[in-house]
Amino acid sequence: MRLLECVPNISEGRDPDKIASIAGEVTKHKKVRLLNISSDRDHHRSVFTFVGEPEAVKEAALAFTLKAIELIDMREHKGEHPRLGAVDVVPFVPIHGVEMAEAVGIARELGKDLGKAGIPIFYYEEAALKSGRRELPAIRKGEYEGLNEKLEDPEWKPDEGPAVFSPKSGATVVGARFPLVAYNVNLKSQDLNLAKEIARKVRFKDGGFPHVRAMGVELSAKSGSASGGKEKRLVQVSMNLTNYQVTNIPKVYDFIETEALKHGVEVDGSEIVGLIPLAVLEGIARHYLKYPQFSTEQVIEQRILEFE
Amino acid sequence: MRLLECVPNISEGRDPDKIASIAGEVTKHKKVRLLNISSDRDHHRSVFTFVGEPEAVKEAALAFTLKAIELIDMREHKGEHPRLGAVDVVPFVPIHGVEMAEAVGIARELGKDLGKAGIPIFYYEEAALKSGRRELPAIRKGEYEGLNEKLEDPEWKPDEGPAVFSPKSGATVVGARFPLVAYNVNLKSQDLNLAKEIARKVRFKDGGFPHVRAMGVELSAKSGSASGGKEKRLVQVSMNLTNYQVTNIPKVYDFIETEALKHGVEVDGSEIVGLIPLAVLEGIARHYLKYPQFSTEQVIEQRILEFE
Fold it and tell me: Whole-prediction pTM value?
């Protein structure tokens, strides 16, 4: 079973009936698996994660988007999170056995279909057609409220669909990206500056590892010690690894551990937030076991999936 | 999807038609996946690996065994590997979401069915009913050629089926065990005694880690260097981890690395032979990332399997 993931974000985080009805367009697809729905009342926004064979995921994404556009009216939408439309952004993510080029192809197919349905479409990240449209914040600048004006600017002619503002639906950003690994390393220290300094060294924009975003943050964790649940204050290097095939967890973990030890500080622990592809674990085993040939094909569960 | 594995060994390693015909009893089960067939001409023996929901695997194992018993005649069998019958041993192995007690129950169901079909059955390992029958070599002692005499000994009354020697089929050993992880660590050294010394320290019978068998061996590996494919001689600590939930790879890897470094020797690399359950990787991530809460539930591929 080849696996493509779709992680659409919609501007509805409060009405469970609407959310369920939109989700139903995915669950009724027999070959697509809806893994997660995460709704936020304050953001008035929901993020869906579903996965399956590329063609099936594309079909589900189209049905999902059309249903969301039918049920959501942006004229009534207020929320803290930046957004451009009822279906704000639809990224496709290659998980297993799918090349990025195919994910881009699927994104463009969906974009064309939605464009024909009258929605202005912008392609972003790996599916971007213009260099100024790679980054989501650039496309989303001005938000829904500024979209009418933006669409009048020839610079912002949509990649698909009409350059016409639809007050009910706004616009949709469609694209393809690598899986994002949200990964945090906790340091046995209360020194926020140390966490910030290490974050600077590890992140790409300040000369660190490619495809790594990082920041130093303070966090409090309940200690499990017998001393009675005292709060243990720690600092954390919080990261997004945006292409684990280039920079995977072991590289940043080992680097952070070494940097912290230079200041006499140990790693308390680390954590992965959310879901990861099995290939992330493959990379961990290859590195720590000095076993570069290790393959997920040696994992029974992966072998079973190949029958599906 | 809960996963039980079955790894039957049969006394036929030469006739591809017979092997395919016996394998067909597994592949025709829609809910069981045949992952591997490994046949050895010299041993005149084949090992099958198949996996699926416990009840489906039990049904497939029964059909498989009856077909093998029909097609194999032990009176014509010569091979280097010790064996007791046409279907020599049928171990059930819990892989995911299955407790050992359930695997034992499945083994006993199969044993009863085969007993009724007239095959003397001995239960071994976790399914053993007598302490002297836990280990396969003890049961197999005397082999097929000594089975007639063995069955006349009240001490060796079968656990199921008649205490009657069937010259065509011999007897079958049925049981349940944990997944076996065949794991080797290569040392940058030609000192076989060092590998043997470390193997002694790591293996359980000499005071090492529980559920670890180990030996030191010499191996030759083609070096991938630019110097022209010169042979690089190394020594290896070769292990079987018979319960990775008690002693997983990181424990033995880190121990061997530390012991070797005491002699100024580095680890060259390591390797896993054959298939492993995903939970083995879970243990690797938990240890090396200092992330004890890490769960395979965070792996997309595992989440998909749960729909199947």
Answer: 0.91
